[in-house]
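dumping this here so i dont lose it
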């Protein structure tokens, strides 16, 4: 079987798929207050198209998918799509990134879908008012309820915390404290300029090292080994059930071992978060491409995967301004 291997010998085994560009929140770092210009529904990939794309990718060695968006749970029948996807026998893991505001009713069902193992819940503040300021929606109680339900469930839970200068840096160690009694991974993400052209004024630069220093100011941490392709550098703290991690999303020191590709909700294939999209799969499929055509295409597209996010950014035609909701974070 042919495998997806790029020109640097990296084998691609993970696809991040944005199931929609729509979202029920308006996070300041992701989009402007009025939201982004969403595309007409017919321009979004259908579930059947997504299933087929993932199936072909798994026949080329991909064994994990992360479903993201936009907010995946705002798309109608998302739960049915999860079940459909779980029938793909070549897929080992279906992971989901969510803001958690719409999912408390679905957790029991999610636990029953065997391939759904890891949920990343985005939560940037533990204070209701601050949370509402960041997300521009007053949904903290519902998100926190989801957090508690997920923690009790059999799903692995990671919290995604985007570190935002002037908003939530004073809460970093409050989040770390959660790992004392909870078996969760708290991961701090460097903020990136993918905000759909929203205005962001940042006075301070909270990059990986600064976040690490902040944690070290209160805790003694020990580096733990993670999967080679992990997006975060991870640490344990003596006496804590959970772990903490930092994702150098902007300083990009993790690209060497990248095993990922992305597909946006409109079917744009991306080799890197920082490239501006290399191929439109939706049009290719709608123009009658066969599964063999798709395979050939994927095998050649990954050969264009840039060495790292800096090279990808340098090759772009425009600046980095699109929303993470469009790209699929
Ligand atoms: N709506 C879902 C959510 O918020 O979890 C999934 C999509 S969201 C785009 C995926 C992840 O990207 C979230 O954890 C979010 O916090 C993160 N994200 C969005 N914009 C970002 C930015 N400008 N910099 C860093 N992370 C960002
Ligand atoms: Fe929506 Fe997620 Fe973007 Fe927030 S980060 S606006 S929840 S897509």
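and the seq i came up w/
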């Amino acid at each position: 079987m042919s495998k997806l291997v790029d020109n640097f010998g990296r084998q691609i085994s993970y696809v991040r798929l944005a199931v929609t560009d729509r979202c029920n929140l308006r996070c300041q770092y992701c989009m402007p207050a009025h939201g982004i210009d969403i595309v007409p529904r017919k321009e979004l990939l259908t579930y059947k198209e997504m299933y087929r794309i993932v199936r072909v990718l798994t026949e080329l060695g991909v064994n994990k998918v992360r479903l993201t968006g936009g907010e995946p749970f705002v798309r109608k029948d998302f739960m049915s799509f999860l079940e459909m996807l779980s029938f793909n026998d070549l897929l080992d893991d279906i992971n989901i990134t969510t803001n958690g505001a719409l999912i408390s009713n679905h957790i029991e069902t999610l636990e029953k879908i065997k391939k759904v193992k890891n949920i990343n819940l985005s939560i940037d503040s533990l204070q209701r008012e601050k949370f509402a300021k960041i997300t521009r929606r007053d949904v903290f109680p519902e998100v926190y309820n989801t957090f508690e339900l997920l923690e009790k469930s059999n799903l692995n839970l990671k919290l995604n915390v985007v570190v935002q200068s002037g908003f939530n840096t004073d809460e970093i160690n409050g989040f770390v404290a959660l790992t004392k009694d909870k078996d969760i991974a708290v991961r701090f993400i460097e903020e990136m300029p993918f905000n759909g052209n929203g205005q962001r004024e940042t006075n301070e630069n909270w990059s990986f090292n600064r976040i690490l220093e902040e944690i070290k100011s209160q805790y003694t941490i020990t580096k733990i080994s993670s999967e080679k392709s992990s997006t975060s550098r991870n640490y344990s703290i003596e006496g804590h059930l959970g772990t903490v991690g930092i994702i150098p999303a902007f300083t990009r020191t993790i690209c060497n071992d990248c095993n990922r590709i992305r597909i946006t909700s409109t079917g744009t294939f991306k080799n890197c978060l920082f490239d501006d999209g290399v191929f439109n799969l939706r049009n290719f499929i709608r123009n009658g491409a066969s599964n063999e055509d798709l395979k050939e295409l994927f095998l050649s597209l990954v050969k264009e995967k840039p060495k790292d996010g800096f090279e990808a950014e340098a090759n772009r035609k425009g600046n980095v301004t699109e929303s993470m909701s469009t790209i699929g974070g």
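Residues 23, 29-30, 68-69, 71, 97-99, 122, 160, 162, 189, 191-192, 194-195, 249, 324-325, 329 surround S-adenosylmethionine (ligand 1) (CB under 6 Å).
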